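Researcher: I've been going back and forth with a colleague about how HTH arsR-type domain-containing protein might be arranged in three dimensions. Neither of us has a model we trust, so I'd like an independent prediction. The organism is Terrabacter carboxydivorans, in case that matters for your notes. Sequence below.
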Amino acid sequence: MTGAERAAPVNAHAVAQAQERVPSTEDISRLTGLLSLMTDPVRLRILYALDVSDELCVGDLAIALDLNEDQVTYALRLLRTAGLVHTRRQGRVVFNRLATDFPEPLREHCLRRLVELTRRVSESPDL
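Model: Here is an independent structure prediction for HTH arsR-type domain-containing protein. You can compare it with whatever you and your colleague have in mind.
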């Protein structure tokens, strides 16, 4: 028997609360697409670099991250399309920065604290 076939929930209040608060399938699909962008090491390193720098051009990002410019350009295009990175042109140079509305909790918890957590875990003698 599936959850949908169940005649009466064990905890009707909790079920109703979950139904009200859980994002729609469409919202979750968009969210997983956005989060999947951050699972790529190149894109995530670019986000980190832009978090600690005000803004960087493609060439400077490539040097800072020891990548080639094609890798950086492709990753930035995906990040811009997702709205995570914005650009500013100064003459012929295009500077990249985190979007002004880049979610601060995502910045704080994903870009900063999770790295600290992974360092602690990898340094743990229990591993």
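Researcher: What would you highlight for our discussion?
Model: I'd start with this: Strands lie at 56-57, 85-90, 93-98. After that, consider the following. The longest strand covers residues 85-90.
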